[in-house]
Amino acid sequence: MNCGLLGRKLGHSYSPQIHSYLGNYSYDLFEKEPEDLPDFIRHGNFTGINVTIPYKKDVIPFLDELSATAKKMQAVNTIVRRADGSLFGHNTDCFGFTSMVRRSGIPVSSQKVLVLGSGGTSNTAVKALEDLGAQVVVISRSGENNYSNLSRHFDARVIVNTTPVGMYPNNGASAVDLRQFPRLEGVLDVIYNPARTKLLLDAEQMGIPHENGLWMLVAQAKESAEYFTGRTIDDSVIASVHRKLAAQMENIILIGMPGCGKSTVGRLLADLSGKQLVDADARIQERSGMSIPEIFAQEGEAGFRKRESQILEQLGKQSGQVIATGGGCVTESRNYRYLRQNGRLYWLRRDISLLPRDGRPLSQAADLRQMYALREPMYRQFADAAIDNNGSIRETVETILSHWEEAL
Description:
Layout: E1 2-7, H1 15-22, E2 26-31, H2 37-43, E3 48-51, E4 65-66, H3 68-73, E5 78-81, E6 87-90, H4 93-104, E7 112-116, H5 120-131, E8 135-139, E9 158-161, E10 186-189, H6 198-206, E11 210-211, H7 214-229, H8 236-249, E12 251-255, H9 262-273, E13 276-279, H10 280-288, H11 292-317, E14 321-324, H12 334-340, E15 343-349, H13 361-365, H14 368-382, E16 385-388, H15 393-407
Parallel strand pairs: 1-2, 1-3, 4-6, 7-8, 7-9, 9-10, 10-11, 12-14, 12-15, 13-14, 15-16
Antiparallel strand pairs: 3-5, 5-6
């Protein structure tokens, strides 16, 4: 079986990896220009393909039959070449989105749900939500319900983002301010890179249940694989594949006092998790061409903190890393969102008497107990968990990995 993903500009895609877990078939990426589409659909070397932007509607004229879902959506993301050579088109995005809603536990039946965006993914969300009994309102840039009159929808209970706002590499943007919706009970975002968009970070901060789009991505692939192979795949596989991807993508971030062991713990964490270790202080020195004491001498702490935040903003956008941060990164509140968007933060706690001072400008100049007293509430606020690092390094690492795996 030859399967794959059809699109115009595919870049990095998790689809080949996902499908490697779902069936014993090859899965390639097919980047095609619009003029190449007719010949590829009719004569391409595939038995089954997924279709992504911008071709979900464009492929329909070349297909011999559509499923009821594809007809209703007028969009196809799965094509199967039958034994007689005919082409069958289906849409698994609805299944994926519905599975995502159910996974989130957010109630939508009889609830007012705002769907942000009016493109193809919006159409998918609207159909799925209506089938689940929601009262759906689509918010677009123009039309009766738009971003300039959101106040009329202050009573919305759920918000679903189907726009690319906040997606990598344009992290940190949000289409709406959640504070406008005092009755909000859930937020869904189809974006999965970053794992937590600004919209989801805002929901997290407000204690509102939320879910990103990674589950949807895996679930729609699972149903596609069923059409490719002609066999039923148990829904429990979605959770298994989702967990593998989330574990691969999520950063493990170490915070704590200078000298608490972040670099040492980070090295073993990287070895055991298969992730890349990145030392934020080392990256700052590489980028600036100066040592940290030199930066402090020339620019002061304010200059160093500015450089540090710039580096953490860049590192936080990336996935699959162990990040060892500088001891004072928690003094800049903005750094939390930079790090949290793709990661989980662990505070290494070590007895102050064991903390070294050499090569650490602030540690040399300050009373460490006073520094700790000032920073302790900041570490607590940033951290997903506090980890004792007064014993062996391996015990510390195993405790972090245990907590991390349970959280996944």
